[in-house]
Design goal:
Largest sheet: 5 strands, mixed
CATH class of the largest domain: Alpha Beta
Radius of gyration: 45 Å
Strand order of the largest sheet: 33-30-29-34-35
Number of strands: 35
CATH architecture of the largest domain: 3-Layer(aba) Sandwich
CATH superfamily of the largest domain: von Willebrand factor, type A domain
Strand content: 15-25%
Helix content: 10-25%
Number of helices: 8
Number of domains: 4
CATH topology of the largest domain: Rossmann fold
């Protein structure tokens, strides 16, 4: 029995006990949607046997006729295209186009076809006042299940589709009641018991190959034939007129890299003719050149083109795409001083693209210059919109954040050592740099606080290892130049004479800087440590470990406080403090060799923090 005929029989039994005409439009036949097939005008209700769909033509234009395993199947086609029924009608597999039940609302249709699981999206067509529906297709592969008169043997998987090629998986992928028929496998592997299998003699690693013909595995695995060669019966060979040269097949009669012999290489411009190098162009001083394009021998030996000119067709001229501007060949498609035509200058910061001046992406032209409207304080968002006393951020004028520096200066005994080629000591050169910095006009408005390292306490003048002692700054934070005189006088009153406990000093000043920033949230801030060594004091695990932990902790805090390090001298190695600076978010320590360097580095730190966001 044909698949569709069998399905109709099943539904006829089911619908015999259904309410009214719940399973069909008028005659109990199951509706569904399918594709493929052709209709003609021959015998009605052809049932087979069959070889092709043409043997099953039932003369109903709305049905699709197929031949499944020698038996005919007739199913309603899509209500569109060649299988479409006139408005208000539905396709019946046995009768063709028939009128659907009349309706006023979709509820009428739901009652009429109540209990018919094969009909989904039941609705009343407002234009024709007839009931219509979509056929059940749970997996959405446009093939209804067999129970609804379709040909989908597995309506739970869209991968199972009638008519598709079989995969080697042990499953019936195309609903023809057979598995793996015609399934292919990579290489020379064969499909067996639902899986691709490769004979041992054909297995080369992960590849299944024919050792008789595979050029990468010729005769044996990994035996690769030379470039240009072929594998025949497991043996690599070049063509009859070719020779193997350095792992490749070469024709010694025509190959300029192997002319006459494998080692016979022709000079540039020469061709290999009959196994001999020959100049097929023009020989100029023993060199074979093309005088139609060679700028040194344009239309004849030693006829040179002027600088900037190319040889085109044996004549010196500007290359294609360029023009002669003032005797120089210019690419007017990209030259910003000669854009499109000679002498056409693009605006400041502009670009020339395709011979047309413009601004880079994201910029606009304002007063003859290309600007970034998101950041330009003189043209913020739009040309001419100036930000008074502030900056431009994301096209909005914003106030500039104030900058506060909490500086630690080393007054330990080792700072009395000579400093590079300078006549002064490390301490005196540092003092000179700080004095100049706090007096800079560009430092006006910058917050400045200062603490010394070490910090003698008690009657024995022992340097403190307590971080909280260092939070009481020698010079409290104030905007320069208000406290510049205090900074200068305090530096002058100290000397390089104490010990060096950098760990508590950094911990204490970081805590001070964080508290200051919490109380001044619109300010930026950072700690600057100026020191020369890493003495093993005030620690139980290691100076560098403690310093890194402190810098890292405050960088990741809220608010974040970065740490800059100016390493004066190299008592513990030239990069000893780099890990501390990196942990503080400033990449590496500065390594000055003079007081001028220290000043320059203080200014660089100021520049990196001042200004608008």
């Amino acid at each position: 029995m044909a698949l569709a005929s069998w399905a109709r029989g099943v539904l006829a039994v089911v619908c015999a006990s259904a309410v009214a005409v719940g399973c069909s439009s008028s005659n109990g036949s199951p509706p569904f949607d399918d594709d493929a097939g052709a209709d003609g005008s021959v015998t009605r209700d052809a049932s087979g046997p069959c070889t092709t769909a043409a043997d099953c033509d039932d003369a109903l234009s709305c049905t699709i006729d197929t031949c499944l395993q020698g038996a005919c199947s007739h199913v309603p086609g899509p209500n569109a295209g060649a299988t479409a029924c006139p408005g208000g009608k539905l396709c019946d597999a046995a009768l063709g186009c028939v009128s659907g039940p009349a309706c006023a609302t979709s509820a009428d249709c739901a009652r009429t076809w109540a209990g018919d699981a094969c009909k989904t999206n039941v609705r009343c067509d407002a234009q024709t006042s007839t009931c219509t529906f979509d056929v059940l297709d749970k997996d959405g592969d446009k093939h209804p299940p067999v129970v609804c008169g379709g040909d989908d043997c597995d309506d739970s998987s869209a991968a199972v589709v009638p008519g598709i090629p079989e995969a080697c998986n042990g499953k019936d992928d195309n609903c023809d009641q057979a598995t793996d028929e015609g399934a292919t496998c990579p290489g020379v592997a064969v499909c067996q018991a639902g899986a691709c299998h490769c004979d041992a003699q054909n297995t080369c690693g992960a590849d299944c190959v024919d050792l008789q013909t595979d050029e990468a595995h010729c005769g044996t695995c990994a035996t690769r034939c030379p470039s240009g060669g072929t594998c025949t019966k497991g043996v690599c060979a070049c063509s009859p007129n070719a020779t193997v040269c350095t792992g490749a097949c070469a024709d010694l009669q025509t190959d300029p890299a192997h002319c006459g012999t494998c080692d016979g290489s022709c000079a540039t411009g020469y061709s290999c003719v009959g196994g001999h190098c020959a100049c097929t162009k023009t020989s100029c001083g023993g060199v074979c050149v093309d005088t139609q394009i060679d700028a040194l021998n344009c239309n004849g030996c030693n006829k040179k083109c002027a600088a900037g000119l190319a040889c085109v067709g044996g004549a010196c001229q500007c290359a294609v795409g360029t023009k002669s501007c003032g005797g120089v060949c210019i690419d007017v498609q990209t030259d910003e001083a000669n854009c499109g035509t000679c002498g056409t200058h693009c605006a400041v910061g502009g670009v020339c693209t395709g011979g047309v001046c413009g601004c880079p992406s994201g910029q606009k032209l304002c007063s003859g210059a290309c600007i970034d409207p998101l950041t330009d304080p003189n043209n913020c968002s739009s040309c001419g919109t100036k930000c008074s006393g502030g900056g431009c951020q994301s096209g909005q004028c914003v106030a500039c954040a104030l900058t506060d520096l909490s500086v630690i200066v080393d007054q330990s005994g080792s700072m009395s050592a000579a400093f590079g080629p300078s006549p002064g000591t490390r301490y005196s050169e540092m003092v000179s740099a700080v004095d100049t910095f706090v007096g800079d006009t560009k430092s006006i408005g910058v917050g400045f606080a200062m603490q010394f390292l070490g910090l003698p306490v008690g009657t024995t003048a022992t340097d403190s290892c307590v971080a909280s002692d260092y939070t009481n700054m020698e010079v409290p934070m104030a905007a320069l130049p208000a406290n510049a005189g205090t900074v200068v006088s305090r530096l002058a009153s100290h000397s390089a004479s104490t010990g060096s406990p950098p760990v508590p000093a950094l911990q204490g000043v970081l805590a001070y800087a964080k508290t200051w920033r919490q109380n001044n949230p619109t300010h930026k801030g950072a700690v600057v440590l100026i020191t020369d060594s890493l003495p093993l004091v005030c620690t139980t695990v290691g100076v560098t470990t403690d310093l890194v932990a402190a810098a890292q902790s405050y960088l990741g805090g809220n608010p974040s406080v970065p740490t800059y390090v100016i390493q004066v001298g190299a008592d513990d190695g030239p990069t000893a403090y780099d890990p501390v600076a990196a942990a503080g978010g400033t990449s590496a320590a500065y390594h000055p060799s003079s007081g001028a360097d220290i000043l320059a580095e203080l200014r660089a730190i100021r520049a990196s923090l001042t200004g608008c966001p």
